[in-house]
Write a structure and sequence with these properties.
The complex is a heterodimer of chains A (about 350) and B (about 160). Chain A has about 350 residues and is of the alpha+beta class. Chain A contains 12 helices and 12 strands. Chain A has a 5-stranded antiparallel sheet. Chain A has a 4-stranded antiparallel sheet with strand order 9-10-11-12, sandwiched between helices. Chain A has a 3-stranded parallel sheet with strand order 1-3-2, with no helix packed on it. Chain B folds into 2 domains: about 80 residues, Ubiquitin-like (UB roll) (Roll), CATH 3.10.20.30; about 70 residues, DNA polymerase, domain 1, CATH 1.10.150.120. Chain B is globular, with a radius of gyration of 16 Å. The termini of chain B are far apart. Chain B has a 5-stranded mixed sheet, with helices on one face. Chain B has about 160 residues and is α+β, with helices and mostly antiparallel strands. The chains are: A alpha+beta (about 350), B alpha+beta (about 160). Chains A and B meet through strand 1, helix 2 and helix 6 of A and strand 4, helix 3 and helix 4 of B.
């Protein structure tokens, strides 16, 4: 790890003015310190924002305003998250370990880097780590790589589970910068790659995520699930995952939400699928048609064609589970495909 | 520039001069305080050998920048026993044969202490296994570890009831 200057910010203004082009914001540190240890990033200054007053979860208009420093474990246990946004809790609890969730922050989860093994190897060409150097993942080991929204410049996926659920719930990221506040929808916060590079950074170096806003889920509160396929049932990143939420009245879907994880450089909101589900009865046939729409345009970025089939199946299963209703208590293995309570 | 890190470690308040900001909490505990019960395994937050409690919550001390935890209360495996009287989790790991080589054991024990305090796993072995998934054991003593956590949970429930 390179040497750096450590600054603890007591106010948001102090944090922004301490920010430099080659500095980094330290929150929970679980991804930042890891990347510094393996030499992927080497910031010359760390600005510690753990003391900023961003630790609260406030209710407003049926929704929530979540401080960027709220730790993953606290968010997953919050009574309103459990009762009205259960797919957020299930996504959080399906990720990392209890130790990491106690340290990792909400803002940091959004800002975490891809787990592409070529990004993580400083000796490999990587347009995301070093623009213009190429992409070593193409032709390499691509099990964790994209099937949607990728280009020859970058085939990495965003690894977050939380962001997939947040995107499904129409979450908004609130960002403070020297020129004031701006807001970006979760579903478009992470730029997709273009023909030549991995896409711009989601934040300027002097910008800081302050809150995540979750609007009222209305009638979807108890019909929401997250399902995650991974190589082992705990403490592993998604190969593919899906968050689904439904509002069902009189045997018809009033509104549907579907977002996929592990498939693109951002949580992939499947709006065409949602639109097709509106007005339909919540049947497996309708969910299968929706899943086809969700995967429309999907293409393997390497030896990962199986992910298209897997993502389609996981989307169907998440919709089936959402239609069946969220259980009062989350299962012992959150988001596991090995759940016996439905036919999916 | 040397910065003073204030920590309360196993009940004792300490001022620790830090002249290299790269020090993790794990490094400080082992190299500066001499508490080597907390182990460095992967040093990347994947194995759980470095698990300690910060203000009662389990975290990976290898991914905790020490300066960021100024003012915190730390509990390490050395802080569990009262004299010769083992903590119920320590006793249960011996009774249930919850280890082989022992390297991961301090982290397993600290994680189990927190898991029981969190109160969400109870006596459900599946929830115990899931709750302990951040602690790897390359000797694969998992069956004994699960049994130890269940034994300790029962013992601590009896203590609470008494």
């Amino acid at each position: 790890m390179n040497l750096f200057e450590y600054t603890r910010a007591e106010t948001l203004d102090a944090a922004m003015s301490a920010a430099t082009q080659d500095g980094a914001i330290l929150a929970g540190g679980t991804n930042l310190l890891d990347l510094m240890k393996i030499g992927v990033i080497s910031p010359t200054r760390l600005i510690d924002i753990t003391r900023l007053p961003l630790h609260d979860i406030e209710e407003h208009d049926g929704g929530l305003l979540i401080g960027a420093m709220v730790r993953n474990a606290d968010l997953a246990r919050h009574p309103v998250i459990l009762s009205r946004f259960p797919a957020v809790a299930e996504a959080l609890l399906s990720g990392a370990s209890a130790q990491l969730r106690n340290a990792a922050s909400t803002g940091g989860n959004i800002m975490q880097q891809t787990r592409c093994s070529y990004f993580q190897d400083p000796l490999s060409p990587c347009n995301r780590r070093e623009p213009g150097s190429g992409c070593a993942a193409i032709g390499g080991e691509t099990r964790n790589h994209a099937i949607l929204g990728w280009t020859e410049a970058c085939i990495a996926t965003h690894p977050s589970d939380l962001c997939v659920a947040l995107a499904a719930y129409d979450a908004v990221v609130e960002i403070a910068g020297p020129d004031g506040l701006r807001e970006v929808p979760m579903e478009s916060f992470h730029p997709l790659p273009d023909a030549n590079d991995a896409g711009p950074a989601p934040l300027q170096s002097d910008e800081i995520i302050t809150h995540i806003r979750l609007p009222d889920p209305g009638g979807m509160a108890r019909n929401a699930r997250y399902v995650k396929l991974r190589e082992r049932t705990s403490f592993a990143f998604a190969i593919v995952s899906a968050a689904a939420a439904l509002e069902i009245q009189d045997g018809r879907i009033v509104q549907a939400r579907l977002a996929l994880g592990g498939v693109a450089a951002r949580p992939w909101r499947a709006r065409a699928a949602e639109k097709a589900l509106a007005g339909q009865p919540p049947t497996e046939e309708a969910f299968a048609r929706a899943a086809d729409l969700a995967l429309e345009g999907a293409a393997p970025s390497g030896d990962n064609r199986a992910k298209i089939t897997l993502a389609r199946r996981i989307a169907i299963r998440a919709l089936i589970r959402a239609a069946a209703g969220t259980p009062d208590r989350l299962p012992a293995l959150p988001a596991s495909v090995f759940e016996g309570d439905c036919n999916g | 520039m040397t910065q003073i890190l204030k920590l309360t470690i196993n009940g004792t308040s300490q001022d620790i001069p830090i002249d290299d900001p790269r020090a993790t909490l794990l490094d400080v505990l082992r190299e500066r305080i001499g508490l080597t019960g907390t182990k460095k395994g992967c040093d990347r937050g994947q194995c759980g050998a470095c698990t300690v409690l910060i203000d009662g919550r389990r975290i990976n001390s290898c991914l905790a920048l020490a300066l960021s935890y100024d003012g915190a209360e730390i509990t390490t495996v050395e802080g569990l026993a009262q004299g010769d009287l083992l903590h119920p989790v320590q006793a249960a790991f011996i009774e249930a044969d919850g280890f082989q080589c022992g390297y991961c054991t301090p982290g397993q024990i600290m994680s189990a202490v927190a898991l029981i305090a969190e109160g969400e796993a109870g006596l459900d072995p599946e929830r115990v296994r899931e709750g302990m998934s951040g602690n790897l054991c390359r000797c694969a003593a998992y069956a004994g570890i699960t049994e130890a956590v269940l034994k300790a949970t029962r013992a601590m429930n009896r203590e609470d009831a008494a």
